[in-house]
Backbone:
């Protein structure tokens, strides 16, 4: 979504992000003439989008009244993962008033999942969190046609292709809705309340079950012609690598992702290369379904287990190689690493940095932070709330 | 440069791109009310930016007068290559009125080169091509800070770092000037008058002495935080490959570019692997400085020489591998191949396509043309003229 610069939208976004502000300061900050500002504020007050909030501290002259985003506003933020539903209901400042989180298999299909989302939101209403919603924002783990509000050929979401998610949510809740890819909303969230605050050009790299990249350029998310920009998990990094779920060989996420790491950890444990992993495998509750996870590898590495450290470094080297290419191409001002495997922490980060800094041109890396996400698991719902408020503000005009 | 949508700019661009149009049609096309349109046109006529151009054919009602971009407008378009200066002086429709082209070594430094550009433009004035220029647009073969109008750490342009190219040209010619990277202006040119006409999201890949990529996203060139976005020549494609001029090993342009192809062609000729190349090498004028070029390889391939075809296909495979990655990342709607090595033609193109279509996700390649540049060597000056006119229109308001 390209954000419009209409004055009423700038007012709403400023009040959303910064809280109560005096009319005088609003006019200064947004460089609006006093009559223009007062007219816009008048209109937004009449539309119940902003409200009076008492008097401002004196600035020497006449005291100015504060305005704030209307305390009645409510947005629903939904982050659908491959195996989870995360929901927050937030106020106009995007502060969470209630949160719901439960496991759910995205493969159970759109009807069941959207119905469960509606049930959780109905529960929030029953709980008194809201009377009516002003917008719903939802992220899904696959490509999305942002314009049409539908998933498009999402590989891990059988039955969801062109399912009218936006339309159904809008109808159910009687308000605007907006649908985006899960990694895009994470990038938006991290820019709103995380480490990429106010950064215009950055890449948000999610390393979890799969690998994806949110591309934030020139202050807005770039989604690509078909909504699949940033689908970097299927970039080939080793022509002789393992076969990927997509059918090609040696894709990035076939070599390093939650699933790949679990596979490699199990192999290392069984081959006797890793005392730490072997111990965790032996201690597993159900030996028949014995398995290891990224957490086991992270813990092993923290204990100094050489095989665990090697697994993380090899993964970091793969990711770093792809990111070096993307840095040469996109020349961003920051790279944020998020997703479940970000818990592998500084060993992973150090390896990624090392490859990116060595392989990209000095001009592009001279001042390029490569950092971990600050919001962690909350990046998605935070971004979905931002999108919901943006669409509510746009449509309210 | 993000293009503003102010009405006077939309009028000027439409007249630049389409020629004389009636006031009535202008109002319809740009969705402007009649009073607003007439006021804008009045102002542009008064400013000598547009002019009356007779009566339009009747559309049934009152006949409407045509307006056109002012026939007096003149823009200078300059394309500096590693070893050449190309200049066109164009009118307000961007039609060339005069062209100058000569060899020049960019390494002779900014003073000598900019002076030569000024001499050629002075010659054009003496020749009666223009009385005064309305803007100068120039492309240089290196990263550029578009905002500051200076080259930034350009690897093949010693002495040019932060040299005030824009300021000096503006002062010399008494008009606005604009500086950009050479590949960016090629992309802009190809979008204005070539195969990417009106395409909003595409990649222009120049394969010449070096390799670079112009990134056109959402209708505008994306230049990156430091002006070096699209610098894809130094992406590592083979960790065991030859050392590149940048100091790293196995960069794309160390494996496939004008210089790399000449090197590999010479090796093939000397190893007796290529009768076509050996014959051309023997026929060279100065045996002491015996060398082969991309043209020799293209001719050899056209004759069916197996080694020549192999060289082109190997190069296409390298370029295709990098482009497959960029397609997964950026999800563009077209890829345009230009630069000197585009003369290798359809053998090269077929190999690039094959790799891109095989390696990228089906959703991203389902409707992705990979095509040769239509403008060829004129893409650069065409884009420089577009940029010059854009900046003249912006500053005229």
Residues:
């Amino acid at each position: 979504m390209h954000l419009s610069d209409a004055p009423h939208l700038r007012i709403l976004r400023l009040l959303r992000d910064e809280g109560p502000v005096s009319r005088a300061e609003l006019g200064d900050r947004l460089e609006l003439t006093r009559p223009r500002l007062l007219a816009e504020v008048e209109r937004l007050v009449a539309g119940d989008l902003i409200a009076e909030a008492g008097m401002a501290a004196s600035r020497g002259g006449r005291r100015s009244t504060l305005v704030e985003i209307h305390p009645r506003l409510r947005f629903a933020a939904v982050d659908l993962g491959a195996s989870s539903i995360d929901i927050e209901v937030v106020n106009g400042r995007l502060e969470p008033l209630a949160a719901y989180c439960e496991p759910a298999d995205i493969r159970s299909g759109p009807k069941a999942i959207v119905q469960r989302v509606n049930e959780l939101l109905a529960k929030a209403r029953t709980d008194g969190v809201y009377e009516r919603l002003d917008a719903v924002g939802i992220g899904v783990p696959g490509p999305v046609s942002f314009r049409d509000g539908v998933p498009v050929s999402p590989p891990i979401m059988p039955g969801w292709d062109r399912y009218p998610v936006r339309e159904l949510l809008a109808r159910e809740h009687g308000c605007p809705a907006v649908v985006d890819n899960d990694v895009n909303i994470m990038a938006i969230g991290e820019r709103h309340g995380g480490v990429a605050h106010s950064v215009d050009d950055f890449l948000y790299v999610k390393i979890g079950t799969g690998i994806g990249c949110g591309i934030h350029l020139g202050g807005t998310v770039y989604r690509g012609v078909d909504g699949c920009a940033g689908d970097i998990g299927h970039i080939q990094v080793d022509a002789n690598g393992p076969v990927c779920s997509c059918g090609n060989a040696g894709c990035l996420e076939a070599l390093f992702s939650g699933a790949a790491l679990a596979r490699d950890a199990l192999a290392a444990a069984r081959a006797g290369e890793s005392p730490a992993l072997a111990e965790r495998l032996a201690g597993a509750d159900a030996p028949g379904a014995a398995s290891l996870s990224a957490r086991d590898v992270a813990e092993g590495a923290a204990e100094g287990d050489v095989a665990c450290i090697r697994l993380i470094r090899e993964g970091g080297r793969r990711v770093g190689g792809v990111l070096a290419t993307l840095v040469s191409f996109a020349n961003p001002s920051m790279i944020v690493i998020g997703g479940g495997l970000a818990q592998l922490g500084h060993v992973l980060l150090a390896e990624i940095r090392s490859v990116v800094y060595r392989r990209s041109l000095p001009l592009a890396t001279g001042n390029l932070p490569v950092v971990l996400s600050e919001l962690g698991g909350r990046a998605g719902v935070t971004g979905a709330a931002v999108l919901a408020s943006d669409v509510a503000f746009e449509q309210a005009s």
Summary: The first strand of chain A starts at residue 21 and ends at 22. The CA atoms of residues 206 and 339 of chain A lie 5 Å apart.
